[in-house]
Design goal:
335 residues, alpha/beta, Aminopeptidase, OB fold (Dihydrolipoamide Acetyltransferase, E2P), 6 helices, 20% helix, binds zinc ion
């Protein structure tokens, strides 16, 4: 059965337990059409609402496949509450095999606050997404490393707003089989969409698992098993939630960017702990002549690095440092 296309303004969900699949559409003033696939599983018993969403950055495939798997894994008769699943948020970018930035307006949608549907295409996309999920109590947003991004698996938790909300957000992270959970207190380093969700009372995390645009079975399973653990943690499914070993990461985000274009030769790998002053890599011209060397500003863990050699310091749409980023670090606090 083909899922029904429904215009955003006329979307109504059933009150009865069951599974409904919709492609929600909304016309942008540019003439471009927003399309967001949404599945709503209404449980037979009362309970909270959880949203699982993925594909905000369209080449981060492990979460997309895990969210899709969740659609058929959860049965209404076993569920307490309501589960919303958005397998791919940025469908336009997904179908164009576009990395990180939205292909229509070149915006980074994680950094957009909802509430501006009259803005650009990405503004309306995020506003539409927010309107779809805003009745949720909890939200898990699955990410991974794009094709150009070699990334460790970890779960950042935005620690913002009331204590109770922070605890709820943290509880969502406990079932993901990743090495690190990172409670993030530094407001400027929390994506504005996460802050808007917290302001609406929605406990949320984003999960980084998978790298270089390759959806491996094991990375997809980490997202999927994490969803099930979260559903058990908040009482929407029966059973003991998984509690894999995790370490807590605390520190300050910093990023090494190039201010000139060139060919990047990284000397570190994701997950490396680098000491202050340690060599991180070099930028050359096309011929291999040295342009610049880069060193760590402080003792840090490499959260990810750009494994793609093409570094373009002139391509910075809306100021976003995606094409000139080299290494993303978390400066470790001395313990
Ligand atoms: Zn992402």
């Amino acid at each position: 059965m083909k899922p029904e296309k429904v215009e955003f303004d006329s979307l109504i969900w059933s009150e009865k337990p069951g599974v409904e699949e919709r492609i929600v559409t909304r016309k942008h003033h540019s003439g471009e059409l927003i399309e967001i696939p949404v599945v709503r599983i209404r449980g037979a018993k009362p309970g909270p609402q959880l949203t699982v969403m993925s594909g905000m950055h369209a080449g981060e495939y492990s979460g997309i496949l895990a969210a899709q798997k969740l659609v058929t894994a959860v049965k209404p008769e076993e569920l307490s509450g309501t589960l919303l699943i958005v397998p791919v948020i940025s469908t336009r970018a997904f179908m164009e095999r576009n990395m990180q930035l939205n292909p229509v307006d070149q915006k980074e949608v994680h950094f957009i606050r909802p509430g501006n549907p009259d803005g650009s295409f990405s503004d309306m996309l995020i506003d539409t997404l927010f309107e779809l999920v805003k009745d949720s109590d909890f939200l898990i947003d699955s990410h991974a490393g794009e094709m150009a991004q070699a990334l460790i698996s970890w779960v950042p938790v935005p620690m913002w707003g009331p204590e109770e909300l922070r605890d709820k957000s943290l509880s969502l992270a406990l079932g993901f089989d990743v090495k690190y959970v990172e409670p993030r207190y530094d407001e400027p380093s929390i994506p504005p969409l996460c802050l808007a969700l917290l302001d609406a009372g929605i406990a949320n995390i984003w999960v980084e698992c998978g790298k270089n645009g390759v959806p491996t079975e094991s990375d997809t399973a980490i997202h999927f098993d994490g969803y099930l653990a979260a559903l058990r943690t908040i009482g929407m499914l029966e059973g003991e939630p998984a509690r894999p070993d995790q370490q807590t990461l605390r520190g300050r985000r910093s990023q090494i960017n190039a201010d000139i274009s060139g060919v990047w030769h990284p000397a570190v790998k994701e997950g490396d702990i680098v000491e202050k002053g340690q060599y991180l890599g070099r930028l050359t011209d096309y011929f291999g002549n040295m342009l610049q060397e880069y060193h760590a500003p402080a003792r840090s863990i490499v959260l990810y690095y750009w494994s793609n050699p093409a570094i373009n310091a002139d391509r910075r749409p809306h100021g976003y440092d995606w094409h000139n980023g080299l290494v993303s670090l978390l400066e470790l606090e001395e313990s």
